[in-house]
Design a protein that fits this description.
Amidohydro-rel; Metallo-dep_Hydrolase; alpha/beta; eight-stranded mixed β-sheet; 16 strands; about 25% helix; about 425 residues; signal
């Protein structure tokens, strides 16, 4: 059995063998350097990038892909999504985001819920997204469970299982904890203390003085990895005072690895976030607040945090987490355009691309494998018709782990099947 699990782990960690591919004549944005390489080449072999540059020798046996002057970038990395664990939001049998009546919370692992054939994966992939962090939702506790990093290619879908713990703070966390922020932080403090107790004595947990524990043993085991720093905590939080209180948790648990999600008022305490070296998963906030915990919302939130030195990954807006993750390049473009609005804080083009690729990969501990076009890294590569953050641009070729990946989805097939310009080529029964 141990041998079987070892083989499965190796399958997840290692890209499958693939052909030799040379992407030529592209404007290559490596993201490892500030400026793109004009007329560049990306050479891929066996699922890995071999070389990148303007003078790369193309082997005679390579499959050549002509970028025709278009941009070539790393695959986009969606840092916050529900892709793969929900098909229809309102149909509970297809929605595995949260478990509202489960006896467990932090111990929940969403990996068994992933459906590689869900239609949202192909819809997301054909817009250049090759990896996604998939979050559970908090159902009956502030702890939502253990999320993962998903590959949107064919084959083994999970890049990293149990990649982080999801924790809800702020207004939603207060509601789940009993109705106030005081109860919320009391719940969090108690849970972390019990997790630390479990880590000191796993066999004795739940007995003796731990008999009155509010955590099930499985939940305590999952949170023990959080307080020890083995697993990062993605903390959903928006209000500035809540952010400061979350950062203060490291005074008690110095090994705690925090990732802030949302941070609508993050710009007001950006200096504190930067000083703590805590990264942020942030969307382009609406110009008006959507809740009392986001009264200071501004579309310059991301730009101001970046200017303060915060590492930011651009993620979908809340209602787009299931089926519209593909819109993150549009959000990146909006951030670049902020500089043209009076009082707006611009995000540079290079910063926007990094926030779609390198930053999320690094935030989730995969910077050595993904996020930039550099020799040795996994070959998640997208060839674009134009600038990736322009609305008129689209992928013309896409590779995940060095494998050419289809740019078809259920929607494109339906479009082609019922295109009125092609009706004369269809069987007659389709015209009745």
């Amino acid at each position: 059995m141990k041998r079987l699990f070892a083989l499965l782990a190796l399958t997840i960690a290692t890209p499958a063998s693939a052909e030799t591919i040379a992407i030529v004549n592209g404007k290559v944005a490596t993201i490892a350097r500030a400026e793109p390489i004009e007329n560049g080449t990306v050479l891929i072999r066996d699922g890995r990038i071999v070389s990148v540059g303007s003078n790369v020798a193309v082997p005679a046996n390579a499959r050549v892909v002509d970028a025709a002057g278009g941009w070539v970038t790393p695959g986009l990395f969606a840092g916050y999504s529900h892709v793969g664990i929900v098909e229809v939001d309102a149909v509970s049998s297809t929605n595995d985001i949260q478990a509202s009546s489960a006896p467990y919370a932090a111990a929940i692992d969403i990996a068994p819920a992933v459906n590689p054939l869900t239609t949202a994966i192909a819809v997301t992939r054909i817009e250049g997204v090759t990896r996604a962090a998939v979050m559970p939702g908090a159902g009956n506790d502030i702890f939502g469970g253990q999320g993962l990093v998903l590959s949107l290619g064919d084959g083994t879908p999970i890049t990293r299982q149990q990649a982080f713990q999801y924790i809800v703070m702020g207004e939603d966390g207060a509601r789940l904890a009993g109705g106030s922020r005081g109860a919320l932080f009391a719940r969090l403090a108690d849970a972390f203390a019990e997790a630390a107790a479990y880590a000191r004595n796993p066999a004795g947990y739940g007995f003796g003085r731990d008999r009155g524990s509010l955590l099930k043993k499985a939940d305590a085991a999952a949170l023990a990895k959080v307080v020890s720093g083995e697993v990062p905590a993605v903390v959903s939080v928006n209000r500035a005072s809540d952010i400061v209180n979350v950062l203060a948790l490291r005074k008690t648990y110095p090994r705690l690895r925090l990732i802030l999600a949302g941070a609508a008022e993050g710009w007001t305490v950006a200096d504190k976030i930067a000083a703590a070296r805590v990264p942020v998963l942030a969307s382009v906030a609406p110009n008006l607040p959507e809740s009392f915990e986001a009264l200071a919302a501004t579309q310059s939130n991301v730009g101001r945090m970046i200017r303060a030195g915060v590492k930011v990954a651009i993620v979908p807006i809340g209602r787009d987490l299931n089926h519209q993750v593909r819109l993150i390049p549009q959000q990146a473009g909006n951030l670049v355009a902020q500089g043209k609005i009076p009082g707006g804080v611009q995000v540079s083009h290079a910063e926007a691309l990094a926030a779609l690729t390198r930053n999320p990969a690094e935030i989730f501990g995969l910077g050595g494998e993904l996020g930039t076009l550099e020799p040795g890294k996994r070959a998640d590569v997208v060839v674009w018709s134009g600038d990736p953050i322009e609305l008129a641009s689209a992928p013309t070729a896409l590779f995940i782990d060095g494998r050419a990946t289809s740019l078809e989805s259920r929607q494109t097939k339906l479009r082609d099947r019922y295109n009125p310009l092609k009706q004369d080529t269809l069987p007659k029964q389709y015209s009745r």
